[in-house]
Amino acid sequence: MLAVQSPFARKLGAFVALSDTELSALDRLYGRRKVFPAGRDIVHQGQSAQSAYILASGWVCSYKIQTSGSRQIVDFQIPGDFLGLRSVLFRTADHNIEPITQVEASEVPAKDLFETFSTMPRLATAVLWAASRDEAMVVEHLVGIGRRDAKERMAHFLLELGARLKLVGLGSATGFACPLTQYLLADAMGLSAVHVNRVLRELREDDLLTFQHGQVTIHDLDGLVLLADFDKTYLDHDGPLLR
Amino acid sequence: MLAVQSPFARKLGAFVALSDTELSALDRLYGRRKVFPAGRDIVHQGQSAQSAYILASGWVCSYKIQTSGSRQIVDFQIPGDFLGLRSVLFRTADHNIEPITQVEASEVPAKDLFETFSTMPRLATAVLWAASRDEAMVVEHLVGIGRRDAKERMAHFLLELGARLKLVGLGSATGFACPLTQYLLADAMGLSAVHVNRVLRELREDDLLTFQHGQVTIHDLDGLVLLADFDKTYLDHDGPLLR
DNA sequence: CGTCGGGTTGATAACTTTCAAATTTCGTGG
DNA sequence: CCACGAAATTTGAAAGTTATCAACCCGACG
């Protein structure tokens, strides 16, 4: 085992038990470390993409814009997450990626990625796994928007976010720091910003949680889980699935 | 090249140029061919899954049920599509799969799948690709539910379905046969069945399309594309992306 | 025939958006 | 440290969209 593992290696290791050879191949994948300022898109819809990124610090969101101008945020990425894998696979980006805060990310050139896959099949499988977990999150998001009302949706979203942050050491059972504005929340949940505001107030008045000053504080975890019908099994599992 | 390719091999071949060796490895993947009657679930949420399936004929849907009882259909699968890949990767199913019509599908045991991945890395990459295309469809679905009103949503959905069916030779520019009930449509689009009915009537009254007696007939393709803000680039590309 | 799963329609209720305006927060330069 | 402007949050009222409830129709099928 290498002494220090990157968050990304740790994540893949949760799916596939990785050998030292594979771990160091992973390390070599990392290209230049880049810094992006908040607000300016890293990737544009339709742009051809030669690199993916692995997020080291900061938050980003991936979203799609419609010609009408409205946008839907598909997901937020937090440290350890892979950015733009799909864009690399398809050569061109089908979505935008915007840093919400300042962001540090390591570039992973497409060429290196494919070469590594062909020599280290287990790594390809591990990435397939990670991609599938991402898909599971998108599916859960879809269910949320399709079949939960605004309040349940918000509760579910914040619970999921909290669970993910806890996995990478950025949150606890009582809350977490959250740089998302109500506009971002609205675009993620398919609501208007005004309604997001009202829903947050209701959750506060119900003594379920408080989201103020960039801080989410959970007052009644059980109440939230009940309200949101939250089931976190899709987020975690114990130990590598492939040995 | 093998004389006859399965729909699945054809689909993977669109992503990665496959050698004869790889093609015959794919063929060996196919296990027993099974037949499922309409209506009885093939896979249940929470069930442990040892096999995936490749759909040979018929339609199925994957959906999630909430404890409240409402359900959200995540996607419909048509011949050539992979079923339950995520369930196999995670050992347990996070969604249900229900045949809408009678269905024929080939079983793919998890063990064989992983063995094939480890000896044929390019196949693993190809499957990663196919999984990513599926994710792109889920993302588009998410955008539809989050940011399109009922009419746009329906138009977009039927356009996408038509495009997919055309790819496997089951539809044309003027329409396609469609076994979906208004209840299924409602669960897929996050609407009530009653509203689906109204929306279909509006589309008919606008001379855009007719959906009656299991047949979708497109009257005004351009009008629909305009209404739905439809962009099919995420569904197709020309030739294998990896040679 | 009678029933049952779809489909269709109208009336009403619920939820969410939009518009408009006030208030607070926060970073920056004086 | 304070003032200022921009961005974010908050609230009310009115309008719009979609759900729900309740009927009724129709064709398939035993």
- CATH architectural category of the largest domain in chain A: Sandwich
Query: What string, H for helix and E for strand, traces the elements of chain A in order?
Result: HHEEEEEHEEHHHEEHHEEH
Distance between the termini of chain A: 15 Å
Query: Which chain pair shows the most residues in contact?
Result: A-B, 51 and 52 residues
Output the CATH class name of the largest domain in chain A: Mainly Beta
Give the oligomeric state: homodimer
> What class, by secondary structure content of chain A?
alpha+beta
| Radius of gyration over C-alpha positions of chain A, nearest whole angstrom | 18 Å
Going by CATH, the homologous superfamily of the largest domain in chain A would be Jelly Rolls
Q: Any low-confidence stretches of chain A, pLDDT <50, length ≥5?
A: none
Number of helices of chain A: 9
The order of strands across the largest sheet of chain A is 1-7-2-5
Q: Describe it for me?
A:
The structure is a homodimer of 243-residue chains. Chain A is an alpha+beta fold and 243 residues long. Chain A has two domains: 130 residues, Jelly Rolls, CATH 2.60.120.10; 86 residues, Orthogonal Bundle (Arc Repressor Mutant, subunit A). In chain A, 44% of the residues lie in helices and 21% in strands. The first copy, chain A, has a four-stranded antiparallel β-sheet. A four-stranded antiparallel β-sheet of chain A has the order 8-9-11-10. Chain A has a three-stranded antiparallel β-sheet with strand order 4-3-6. In chain A, helix 4 packs across helix 5 and helix 6 packs across helix 8. The mean pLDDT of chain A is 90. At the A-B interface, strand 4, helix 3, helix 4 and helix 5 of A face strand 4, helix 3, helix 4 and helix 5 of B. The structure holds a DNA duplex (30 and 30 nucleotides).
